[in-house]
């Protein structure tokens, strides 16, 4: 008999297992759960109220403060960030708040395997722009893990490395836009990826998440979550094109990044 069947979470030793792993094990026993929904019949999280809920059949009752139960949950926002813009920042912040991630690591890639046809901007510039864009958010950090690794930047290698460095008591949440999540989950390594982290799929204008993700989440129900992001139809491709054509990029990205682009004459050709 597990803690739910006994009538609450009192018996759970918070030090032993990360929250979602714990919830997963209860789901395996047929109770069902999704951390972002409040449906009856199991357990989940009210992110905005910072509480874990439990419903044993007699209605929802709040049991514990989230931080008392969960161990650390770290977000990972991977990207080329060429350049970083408000679409990235808003998606990362929405995921951070919804899943209480601390910190969110922005991981600029060195050589993205899926962008082989287009020469990405020197890593130094992309790294510094990412630092400039994230500096005012105390919950955001920038990781050099991919920049310092030779060769193409495969997400699976990064997750293996971060998994090993954070240890078993930290849950990793890979944040990705609607376009990228569908790519990630069609990879051959998908089973290993899902063993290393959870995925948060952020909505992105122009990409339909619901149908495909609905299909995928059925398969990976306990590992892939969705977060609604205020729609920002901004892309790095569009920003690069605008700079090249001499058009304004104001308000599409943080001002220090805009100034950096002009100072270093990026994206002119
Ligand atoms: P590019 O046009 O060069 O591909 P991009 O704007 O797609 O650039 P990336 O660095 O490729 O930016 O994206 C990194 C991550 O951020 C991806 O998971 C992507 O889906 C997500 N993302 C990018 N822009 C948005 C946006 N406007 N809304 C939500 N997610 C986004
Ligand atoms: Mg992209």
The gyration radius over C-alpha positions equals 20 Å
Written as H for each helix and E for each strand, in order along the chain, the element string is: HEEEHEHEHEHEHHEHEHH
Helix content: 25-40%
CATH top level assignment of the largest domain: Alpha Beta
N- to C-terminal distance: 65 Å
Name the overall outline: globular
Strand composition percent? 15-25%
Name the bound molecules.
Answer: adenosine-5'-triphosphate, magnesium ion
Number of domains in the coordinates?
A: 2
**What is the quaternary state of this protein?**
single chain
**What's the rounded overall pLDDT mean?**
77
CATH homologous superfamily label of the largest domain: HUPs
Which class best fits the helix and strand makeup? alpha/beta
Main beta-sheet strand count, sense and barrel state: 6 strands, parallel
Q: Helix segment count?
A: 10
Going by CATH, the architecture of the largest domain would be: 3-Layer(aba) Sandwich
> CATH fold name of the largest domain, please?
Rossmann fold
- Total strands: the figure is 9
- Low-confidence runs of at least 5 consecutive residues: 1-43
The strands making up the biggest β-sheet line up spatially as: 6-5-4-7-8-9
């Amino acid at each position: 008999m597990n803690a739910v069947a006994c009538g609450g979470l009192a018996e759970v030793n918070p030090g032993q297992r990360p929250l979602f792993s714990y919830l997963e094990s209860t789901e395996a026993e047929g109770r069902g759960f999704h951390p972002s929904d409040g449906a009856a019949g199991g357990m989940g999280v009210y992110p905005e109220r910072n509480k874990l809920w439990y419903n044993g059949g007699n209605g929802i009752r709040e049991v514990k403060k989230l931080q008392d139960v969960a161990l650390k949950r770290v977000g990972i926002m991977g990207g080329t960030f060429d350049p970083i813009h408000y679409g990235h920042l808003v998606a990362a912040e929405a995921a951070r708040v919804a899943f209480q991630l601390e910190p969110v690591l922005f991981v600029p890639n060195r050589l993205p395997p899926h962008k082989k046809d287009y020469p990405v901007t020197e890593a130094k510039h992309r790294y510094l722009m990412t630092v400039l864009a994230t500096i005012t958010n105390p919950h955001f950090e920038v990781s050099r893990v991919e920049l310092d690794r030779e060769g193409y930047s495969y997400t699976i290698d990064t997750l293996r490395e971060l998994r090993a460095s954070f240890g078993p008591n930290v849950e990793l949440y890979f944040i990705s836009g609607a376009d990228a999540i569908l790519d990630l989950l069609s990879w051959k390594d998908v089973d290993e990826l899902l063993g290393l982290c959870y995925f948060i799929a952020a909505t992105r204008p122009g990409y339909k998440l619901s149908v495909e993700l609905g299909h995928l989440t059925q398969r990976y129900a306990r590992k892939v979550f969705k977060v609604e992001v205020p729609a920002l139809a901004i892309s790095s491709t569009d920003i690069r094109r605008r700079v090249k054509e001499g058009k304004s990029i104001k308000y599409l990205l943080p001002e220090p990044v805009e100034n950096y682009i002009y100072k270093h004459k990026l994206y002119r050709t």
